[in-house]
Structures are given as C-alpha cells and as structure tokens.
Amino acid sequence: MLNVGLVVVLVLASALIYAFATRVTTPMPDPRRMEANPDLLGDFIQLQVLNGTEVAGAAAQLTEHLTDLGFDVIEVETHTDQTIPKTVILDRVGNYDAAQQVALAIGVADDRISEELRPDYFFDATIIIGADYASIKPFVDMPGARSESEEQAEDSPEENEL
C-alpha cells in the first residue's frame, strides 16, 4: 500500500513539474503597446478581425480568444473575399512588435505578417482568417475544425482505388 502511495505522489509531482516548466518556457503574448502611437487611443493593441472563410462564427471565436488575452478588438467583419487560403496579419501603423504579439497570440509564424499601412484606420493590425483556420489558436483542437493537410487529403483522389 505504501508503494502505491509513493507512485501516486511521484506522478503528481511529475505532473506539477511539467506544468511549471511548460508555463515558464512557453512565451505569452503581451497585448500592451510597446511604442506609444499618438494616433491611437489606449495602451493595448487594437485589432480588426476579418473572416476570410465561409465558416460562420470564425471571427467571433477568434475575437473571444484575443479579448481573453487582453487585446482590444474594435472591429469584427466578414472579408469581401471568403476564399483566403492562409491566415495573415496586416500591420496597419508600422508597429511590427504589435503584429508579432498578435502572431504569437494566434500561433502563426512571423512570415504571415505584412505591412499594409493605413493611417485612416484606427487599429494596430488586421487579422484575416484564412482556410487554414483549424491550424491557428483558438481553433486548434476544436471539434469539427480540419487542418490544411486534412482538407488537401480530402480534395485529392484516392491513390488506392481499384
């Protein structure tokens, strides 16, 4: 009986150590602006989220994820083109650091960031959700979401047909 108790304690201790190590080594996005911009209000990164897919509610779900992290989502709309292949982040004010924090928050690489300055817009960045939505946060592990590779496999003909 003592051996079972020791095993349980060791398993719990291992789980706690793993959780702590993961928490410490995983970078967390910072929703605060690093640089002050006199044209924008507030201290938090302000975003526009556009749904570039035909998946209903994708922009709303991403918005909830971002606001839970502390970002200020000020506009949510459907993109005019709903066939966007990959999710992208558009830097609207020349603050690449803010766009990098957004990329970290949704789990995409920095190569998905491009600069499209729009001084008439009142937000730091625009996120356009693409057909690869299942590979970004918060959609990863969401029931019903399909990864890009699953969609490609479905679109390609079966190799082993008789």
Number of strands: 5
What is Rg?
20 Å
One letter per element, helices H and strands E, the order comes to HEHEEHEEH
Strand order of the largest sheet: 2-1-5-3-4
Q: Which structural class do the helices and strands define?
A: alpha/beta
Quote the average pLDDT: 83
- Which stretches are low in confidence, meaning pLDDT under 50 for 5 or more residues running? 158-162
The 3D shape can be described as: elongated
Termini separation (Å)?
58 Å
Strand content: 15-25%
CATH first level of the domain at 46-152: which class? Alpha Beta
CATH architecture of the domain at 46-152: 2-Layer Sandwich
Structure characterization notes:
This protein is an alpha/beta fold and 162 residues long. It has a domain at 46-152: Alpha-Beta Plaits. The protein is 33% helix and 15% strand. The protein has four helices and five strands; from the N terminus they run αβαββαββα. It has a five-stranded mixed beta sheet, with helices on one face. The radius of gyration is 20 Å and the shape is elongated. The N and C termini lie far apart (58 Å).
